[in-house]
Amino acid sequence: MRTLIALLFAVSFATTAQASPAAGEKPIQHFKVAKVTSLKDARKIFVETTEEIKGKKKLNPAELHEIHVITYRLEKSVEYFAENLKGERKQLAKDIAVVVENIHINSENNRPEKTRKDLNHYFKLAEKFEAGFKHKHH
């Protein structure tokens, strides 16, 4: 019962940074990033940001902050894919969006273990997604 009360309390105050993801935790919008308006730009941003994140190995507070900042741009490209692609590619983009959101929240809240787990999942999905760029010409 105590857990349920704590969970309901967390949901009621989900705007605080302490709420858990299960309780509907939302990221705080610290940066304004321009909306991505073309497949070419979305692809370029996706590849660049993925490479930037791959370079972060320590996941110390400084790197987690850098990852958090990078995810703002990454989210915009994934959002473009999720809105504009079709079929399996659209679904894969939606799956990636969920993982990127987790990376965003966990890096923002200085959770290296959870961030690493999310990053490993993201890199697998991103590799599959990027392979689709090589096979399809738009």
Distinct helical segment count? 5
Question: Could you give a short account of the major beta sheet?
Answer: none
- The average pLDDT score comes to 83
Classify the helix fraction into a percent range: over 70%
Form type: globular
Distance between the termini: 54 Å
The low-confidence runs, each spanning 5 or more residues with pLDDT under 50, are 1-23
Radius of gyration: 16 Å
Oligomeric category: single chain
Q: Give the total of beta strands.
A: 0
Helix/strand order, N-terminal first? HHHHH
Structural class: mainly alpha
**Strand percentage, roughly?**
under 5%
Short description:
The protein has helices at residues 2-12, 39-54, 61-84, 87-108, 112-135. It has 138 residues and is mainly α.
Defining traits:
138 residues, mainly alpha, disordered N terminus
Walk me through the structure.
With 138 residues, the chain is mainly α. Helix content is 70%, strand content 0%. It has 5 helices and no strands. It has helices at 2-12, 39-54, 61-84, 87-108, 112-135. Residues 1-23 have low confidence and may be disordered.
Blueprint of the fold:
Elements: H1 2-12, H2 39-54, H3 61-84, H4 87-108, H5 112-135
Helix pairs in contact: 2-3, 2-5, 3-4, 4-5
